[in-house]
Amino acid sequence: MEKVHYELDPHNRLVIKKSGREAELRRFRKVLDGQFKVDKNSTLTYHVKAPVSEDLKAPHQVKLRGVWSLTKNHDLRLTLDKWKRQTFGDQLTLQGDIIDVHKNSLLFAVTTRSQGNTQSLYGLKLQGSWQADKNNRLTFRVKRGGDEYDTLAFDGIWQINKNHQIIYQYQKAQLKRRPKKIHTLTFKGYWDIKDKTRISYIIDKDTHSGFDFSAGGGSAFGGKTTLGIFKDNYIKYEIGIGLASKTKPVKRTITLYGSWKLKKDLGLIFEVEYENSKICAIIFGAEARLTDKDTVLFKLKNNLNREIGAELELAHQILRGDGEAFLRLLQSRQESVISAGAGWRW
Predict the structure, then answer these.
(1) 144 and 91 in one domain?
(2) CA triplet 305, 281, 272: central angle to 5 degrees?
């Protein structure tokens, strides 16, 4: 039986190899000029530009279905599914660069050459959603038909820039004489907190695209686990990123700088400034009481009015506007505890 194998040449062109008893030649190999395209179900199709010879008996469009993954060099790889004329496990590795990330997509740039040695550049956009895996790595879930998806794991350390945005940088392996190029991917979103042990970076709320990180590291960091810390001008979380190349998680500290306010219709909020001076607030419910140090102690709650296991102590002078009215009410109640937010009003 004739078998067809697929591979890519160094210029990202599809190569068809035929073998088997029914093949006219014992070993047949053909490089096809063309470009790849990706549909909404992440099926890869190669559109052939140059005419295909009759002896090859290949269509002008070759559909390639399989499982998407990301290589160590941050190239896209498709491991092909098995079908009757194809050997199971054929891998196509598209060499290129991830040039942009959006809330529900990833854009990959591919460079190719034609038979006339003309170079061209085009993009492949994969649809899906962003999530963090159990090791706090950034991943992209490539959307396929139905409820199926493939996972691209970014096996590197991400960082937080001055605008409180998540950035991911990687270097591409180049020729020895060329300097390595650093690629920077910036994820535009905002931070949210529902639990002392977790901190989330929301990219698109409607599609649940975002990163939900687990706090702490414990013995992996050589010390005590540090969960959420809430202070008068910052919130801090310490997490561990588990990488395939490391035996222990890599420590990463997330520090959000901002200001606390009390809003009568919302509760206790922490305002964080993002890019272009955009302000987004993390909203908490809270139970408040006066301390013997003449401060206000808040037990923080989530939007379901459940305690998140964290406390915040603020000086009186920080509470302005609605906070001043809340403080007067709290003082009039002496040792009483007053709830703010999470469905409660004072």
Answers:
(1) yes
(2) 135
